[in-house]
Every structure is written in structure tokens, then in C-alpha cells.
Amino acid sequence: MSRFLSARHRDLVPYVPGEQPQDMQYIKLNTNESPFPPAPEAVQAAAADAAKCNLYSDPLCRSVRERLAKRYGVDMENVLLTNGSDEALNFITLAYGDAEHPFAFCDVTYGLYPVLCRLYHVPFIELPLRADFSVDVEACLAADCPLILANPNAPTSLALPRDMLEIIVASRPDRLVVVDEAYVDFGAESCVPLVKKYENLLVVQTFSKSRSLAGARLGYIIGPAALIAELDGIRCSLNPYNVNRMSLAIGSAVLDADEAYMQNCCVIMENRAWTADRLREMGFNVLDSSANFLFAGHPGLTGEAYYKSLKARGILVRYFSAPRTAPYVRITIGTREQMEALIAATGEILKEAQA
Ligand SMILES: Cc1ncc(COP(=O)(O)O)c(C=O)c1O
Q1: pLDDT in 10s for each residue of the chain, 355 residues
Q2: Is 15 exposed, middle or buried (0-12, 13-18, 19+ CB in 10 A)?
């Protein structure tokens, strides 16, 4: 650490993203990306805007906000565009967290939440998931501070129904609830329809998973106009051109063909059911997923051993070493061929482990 680093950041523990290997071609099932590339028209739209890169992007991100507002039945004032939904979470933590306003989230959830809290010196409370990895709704109701819930949760893949989330939101009108819906399009119920009804609800979504645009870095927040205006103040103070031209162009084009992307989600859901069945036949415990990934563990293998054996066979999955998650791995759902390769490799690994 240099002597120049502010004392504020001496204890920083940065987020560690999943591996993005450049050394060889893996079957990449480790960072919950879509296996389907964006449609050629969308790629062309981005390329056309790349030619205008001498000019700044629209700081109001109107093209995408208008389309999102139409798609979700809200007004443009209810939508804020961000550089990936990670940036949405960043703005929210900066805007609403401080020493007097700790955040609460589950003990097994998206790893960026505690990282952002530490960055901004926001204390946080971790609400333990139950033994079956379900969210402890009673603990959520009791938490008297801003609450972030990933729904479906990551890496567990489990989702709460919307009426349960509504009970949590309605229970304390003076407490902010942030529902992170990065994976909602794979079979969970969105809380967007509740946004008009509650002043204390923010919904975060992303183009990274269901809309095949992880590399474009496009996320958004849907919420009450008053909160969106506050978050926009944070956005403009940090980076008023937070979304670049190519991402705005590709995002608009993708939304114009949204049905095709939602159809891709159905294919992923079919592949998910097929993979979960095969893994269960082989003795895995597989949680009931509402996301584009499975959280699975086998009694005869540690999560780490399974991850390493798959990697040696050219298949990448994600392993989390914390005590509660260590028996499992998180497997992104890809194409049917990719999942067949995963199942074949898993059969070999189990045979070796049992020999
Ligand atoms: C629960 C959850 N929220 C948010 C994100 C961030 O996604 P992005 O910044 O690509 O929109 C992720 C990424 O994997 C995630 O798992």
C-alpha cells in the first residue's frame, strides 16, 4: 500500500469477479452470462454508433429509458440507466447508506453488497438464510434499516414470490427496500408492478443476463420518481455520461426485439430443468432454481474438488469458499450442448471419486 492512499481505503476488500480466462477456450458456465450472442441487428446498431464516438453519449439516456418505461408500464421519471446494475447498487449505497443508516442483506447473497458498504463506510447487518437457503422473511420484517434482497438470490437461485416481498415492503413504509432482480426473467415474479404503489421500493435490473449484454454494461433502476431524481443527482455528480453510445444503441435495439430475448430465457429454463434432472439422478442436491444458474452439491465431492475437476476438463463453474457455500458450486445454464458436456464430465468425475 502506498503512503498516498487515503486512510479511508486502507481496509478495502475489493470484489473478486468470476474468472474471465484469456488462455484457452473453456465452456464458460461461471459468470451467469447468456450463451446466446445479441442479434446481428443489435450489433449493427452499436457499430453504427461507434462511428459517432467523437461525440458524447446522451447524458439522459433517453432512447433506452423511453423503451424501458414503455416495456414496464412506468414513466421515464421512474427509470435510471446505469453502467451495469453494479453501478445501480453503487449509487444506492452511496445515496442511502451512512453510519446511522446501516444496510441489511442476507448472509449468503451477491458479494458486491458488503464490498460497497465497506467502500462507503456503511455498517451492515447480515441476515442468515435458513438451513435450506431460503430467505428468513421474519428477519427481513424485523430489520429496521435499508434492506437489499436479490430475488432470485445469488448464488442460491431461490426466489421469493412477489406477495411475500410486498409484505416486506409494506411492513415498514419508512424503510427502503431494494430488490435486485438481475435474474428475474428466468422464472421469478418481478416487483416492478409494485413501484407505483410504494414510495420505499427500488427495483434493480440488468441487460447482462436475460438480454445477452453483459459486456455492454447496461443496468437500470425502476422506482418512485423522487428517489430516481436523488439517484440521478448521484449519477450526475460521479459521471453524467455513465452509459456509452454503443451500449445505448445496442440496448435500444435489444429492447425493440425484446420478445426474442425473453424466448431465449425460455430455452435456458428448459436447459436448466434438463440439467437439474440429470444432476439429481447422479445424487446431487440441486436447489430449485428461478435463475439462469443452478446451485448444486454432491455428498461425495467438495465444491472445490468438483470445480477443479471440471476446470481440468475445460469447463468453468463458480465455487465460493465461504463455509456455507463450500459444499456447492454455481453452474450457469448454457446451451443444451454445453450442458450435455457438463453432465458427461460430471459422470467421469463421480466415477473417479468413487473408484
Ligand atoms: C445478484 C446480482 N446483482 C447484480 C449483478 C451485476 O450485474 P451487472 O453489473 O452485469 O448488471 C450480478 C452479477 O452477476 C448479480 O449476480
Answers
A1: 999 999 999 989 899 888 888 877 999 999 999 999 999 999 999 999 999 999 999 999 999 999 999 999 999 999 999 999 999 999 999 999 999 889 999 999 999 999 999 999 999 999 999 999 999 999 999 999 999 999 999 999 999 999 999 999 999 999 999 999 999 999 999 999 999 999 999 999 999 999 999 999 999 999 999 999 999 999 999 999 999 999 999 999 999 999 999 999 999 999 999 999 999 999 999 999 999 999 999 999 999 999 999 999 999 999 999 999 999 999 999 999 999 999 999 999 999 998 8
A2: middle
Cβ of 182 closer than 6 Å to ligand 1, yes or no, is yes
Measure 182 CA to ligand 1 centroid, in angstroms.
6
End-to-end CA, the chain:
48
Q: Considering only CA atoms, which residue is closest to atom 2 of ligand 1?
A: 182
Q: Is 181's C-beta closer than 6 angstroms to any atom of ligand 1?
A: no
109 lines ligand 1 (CB under 6 A): no
Domain boundaries, the chain: 11-36+259-354, 40-256
Q: Is residue 332 a contact partner of residue 32, using CB atoms and an 8 Å limit?
A: yes
Residue 21 CA to ligand 1 centre (angstroms): 19
Expressed in angstroms and rounded, the spacing between residue 209 Cα and the centre of ligand 1 is 8
Residue 10 DSSP one-character state: T
> What architecture (CATH level 2) is domain 11-36+259-354?
Alpha-Beta Complex (3.90)
